[in-house]
């Protein structure tokens, strides 16, 4: 359904009021506190239609509405466009830390978490990621496969996978040849892995088999990339109910380095921040959570990412503006260092 300007305005007001108060939002609150210049009956009608198309929901027997995951998504899509242009100032001057890149990344993480009360994650530049030198895929038993990945720097990732069904030996040979062609000789980076493992030309059978092998490569990438995390303690401060559960699941994800790196850098648009809400974040443990991220780097190359993680009920505008400002300052810093 195409949303009218008034429906978009009411949706925006509901999201912002709910984020601010944590309470379901009714028509009276929208008219009195949010300043809508229409009658309560008109607002009630619009709220009902927004609920009917899945952007709002009616919790329990409350007369107020709260945003759904789809409602947050529509809201944030417009918000990303609305905050385009040069980012606002960042709280610290990173360019003064030209010779202290690690400290700049650490302070960026702390500043972001302090400003948003969310979980902040920053990935360090990985200009020197080693190339993959050799890949071996072998079948040990009918349902057991081993993969060995060796980089030019000498790092070795070896994983044994026991699959649910017997594996066709021809599929194992194909995978070894395919990975030799698409990965060997290239840097062990997320971009290289995405091109190889998510090639739309792959058949379902091949894609499923490759997905089983991918953790061996993810481990190498994670080990080669420094991650800075801040705000874990403050994340639980204002959370309640389902939000508290989502925050606990986020903290559990932090224990898996490869999963965090994939989350921070996956599907980022170098031209603008991205927002991922609920089901857009892969993994059951991220249900009820949202991610706001932006890349930083040189004019022709992204080197890392800045991200904020938290419950669905977060101040998205502040989060978007904060990651944009941080990414802009980090880009200026790495341009001084590497440019």
Describe the structure.
It is built from 11 helices and 10 strands. Helix 1 packs across helix 3, helix 5 (101-116) packs antiparallel against helix 11 and helix 8 packs across helix 10. It has helices spanning 5-21, 27-32, 40-52, 69-82, 101-116, 169-182, 190-197, 204-224, 242-253, 257-265, 316-338; strands spanning 56-57, 66-67, 119-123, 132-141, 144-151, 156-162, 227-230, 274-277, 289-298, 301-311. 37% of the residues are buried. The protein has 3 domains: 5-67, Winged helix-like DNA-binding domain superfamily/Winged helix DNA-binding domain (Arc Repressor Mutant, subunit A); 83-126 and 227-338, Beta-Lactamase; 132-224, Enolase-like, domain 1. The strands form 3 sheets. The protein has a 5-stranded antiparallel beta sheet with strand order 7-3-10-9-8, sandwiched between helices. It has a 3-stranded antiparallel beta sheet with strand order 4-5-6. The mean pLDDT is 83. It starts with a helix and ends with a helix. It is α+β, with helices and mostly antiparallel strands.
What is the CATH topology of the largest domain? Beta-Lactamase
Number of strands: 10
Tell me the β content. Answer: 15-25%
Q: Name the assembly state.
A: single chain
Q: Which features does this protein show?
A:
five-stranded antiparallel beta sheet, Arc Repressor Mutant, subunit A, Enolase-like, domain 1, three-stranded antiparallel beta sheet, Beta-Lactamase, alpha+beta, 11 helices, 339 residues, single chain, globular
Question: What's the layout of helices and strands?
Answer:
Blueprint: H1 5-21, H2 27-32, H3 40-52, E1 56-57, E2 66-67, H4 69-82, H5 101-116, E3 119-123, E4 132-141, E5 144-151, E6 156-162, H6 169-182, H7 190-197, H8 204-224, E7 227-230, H9 242-253, H10 257-265, E8 274-277, E9 289-298, E10 301-311, H11 316-338
């Amino acid at each position: 359904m195409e949303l009218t300007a008034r429906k978009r305005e009411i949706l925006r007001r509901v999201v912002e009021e709910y984020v601010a108060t944590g309470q379901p939002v009714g028509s009276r609150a929208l008219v009195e506190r949010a300043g809508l210049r229409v009658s309560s009956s008109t607002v009630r009608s619009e709220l009902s239609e927004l609920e009917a198309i899945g952007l709002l929901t009616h919790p329990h027997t409350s007369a107020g509405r709260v945003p759904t995951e789809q409602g947050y998504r529509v809201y944030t899509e417009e918000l990303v466009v609305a905050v385009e242009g040069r980012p606002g100032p960042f709280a610290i001057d990173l360019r003064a830390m030209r010779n202290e890149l690690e400290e700049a990344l650490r302070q960026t993480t702390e500043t972001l978490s302090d400003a948003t009360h969310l979980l902040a994650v920053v990935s360090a530049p990985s200009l020197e990621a080693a190339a993959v030198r050799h890949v071996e895929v072998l079948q040990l038993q009918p349902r057991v496969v081993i993969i060995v990945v060796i980089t030019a720097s000498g790092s070795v990732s070896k994983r044994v996978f026991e699959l649910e069904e017997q594996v066709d030996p021809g599929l194992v040979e194909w995978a070894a040849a395919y990975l030799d062609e698409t990965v060997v000789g290239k840097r062990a980076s997320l971009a290289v892995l995405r091109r190889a493992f998510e090639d739309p030309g792959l058949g379902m059978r091949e894609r499923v088999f490759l997905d089983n092998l991918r953790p061996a490569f993810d481990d190498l990438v994670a080990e080669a990339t420094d991650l800075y995390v801040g705000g874990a303690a403050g994340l639980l401060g204002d959370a309640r109910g389902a939000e508290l559960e989502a925050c606990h699941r986020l903290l559990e994800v932090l224990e898996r380095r490869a999963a965090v790196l994939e989350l921070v850098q996956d599907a980022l648009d170098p031209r603008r921040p991205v927002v991922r809400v609920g089901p857009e974040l892969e993994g059951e443990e991220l249900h009820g959570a949202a991610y706001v991220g932006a890349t930083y780097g040189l004019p022709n190359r992204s080197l890392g990412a800045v991200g904020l993680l938290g419950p669905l009920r977060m101040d998205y505008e502040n989060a978007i503006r904060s990651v944009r400002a941080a990414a802009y300052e980090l880009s200026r810093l790495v341009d001084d260092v590497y440019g």
